[in-house]
Design goal:
Elements (H helix, E strand, L loop, with lengths): L2 H13 L12 H22 L1 H5 L3 H14 L9 H12 L11 H16 L16 E3 L3 E6 L18 E7 L5 E5 L2 H12 L5 H8 L8 H17 L3 E3 L4
Antiparallel strand pairs: 1-5, 2-3, 3-4
Protein name: DNA-binding domain-containing protein
Organism: Rheinheimera soli
InterPro entries: DUF2063, DUF2063_N_sf, NGO1945-like_C
Length: 245
């Protein structure tokens, strides 16, 4: 048997020993130890990244899902943090939902992954805003605006919703490197989404884009409300001056 074939057989057995033949001339005990080390390493990062999701399953049910992921995981990125992204991708694109999976499973997994992503994301130095109405604006790279069907920020073993209830959130990393969230109304969500999608908007341009969605507010009312909101977000480091490139 060629080395490449032996290598493929070895990897296939480590992924799914119940479905693949044991490589020849390799002791069973050595295979078991090696597989256990690899599996525990990968599953340890998944458990650390998705603690709330893990807490909603029995140990046996959670291990079953980890085994399914381990069998599919290709480890094409050298960074350990990418394991969480791979697990989320697995749930979104390869995993078949089971009857005992909560209806909010995918949204909760995304929310927990986003918390980790923001906690470890690198951002360039930013320029503070000195004149909100004159400088071009952008949302911080350490912030993300999200709309979920379920209130993922409240889910725990004691609170597991079965019916959708929309949740609009700003998830961000504060100056002390703590990841936090702010519950938003639809208007504030729209305002921040525009800044996120179109960095470099001026205050006047932002108001002009938002205005058609709130015809009940005149320009002065909308401008005053947006100014108060954005001033608060500037103080929190969530909105800052636009930097090209």
């Amino acid at each position: 048997m060629k080395f490449q074939q032996l290598q493929q057989q070895f990897v296939a057995y480590l992924r799914e020993p119940d479905k693949n033949e044991r490589p020849v001339n390799v002791e069973q005990e050595r295979l078991d130890v090696y597989r256990e080390l690899l599996f525990n390493n990968v599953s340890g990062f998944v458990c650390a990244a998705f603690p709330v999701l893990k807490s909603l399953y029995s140990e046996q049910a959670w291990q079953q899902r980890l085994q399914l992921f381990f069998a599919k995981y290709r480890c094409d990125n050298p960074f350990f943090l990418s394991i969480a992204q791979s697990f989320l991708d697995f749930l979104q694109h390869q995993y078949q939902l089971q009857p005992d999976d909560p209806v909010f499973m995918l949204e909760l997994a995304h929310y927990e992954w986003l918390e980790l992503d923001l906690a470890t994301r690198k951002a360039q130095a930013w320029v503070a805003i000195t004149d909100l109405k004159q400088q071009a604006l952008q949302l911080s790279e350490l912030s993300s605006v999200q709309a979920y069907q379920y209130q993922v920020q409240q889910i725990c073993t004691e609170f597991q919703p079965t019916e959708p209830q929309a949740s609009f959130l700003l998830i961000y990393r504060d100056p002390h490197d703590e990841v936090k969230f702010i519950a938003l109304n639809q208007l504030t969500t729209l305002l921040l989404q525009l800044l996120e999608q179109q960095p470099g908007l001026s205050f006047a341009a932002l108001i002009e884009l938002v205005s058609p969605y709130v015809p009940q507010l005149d320009y002065a009312q909308l401008s005053a409300g947006a100014e108060a909101l954005l001033t608060d977000f500037v103080q929190k480091g969530i909105v800052h001056a636009f930097q090209a490139g």
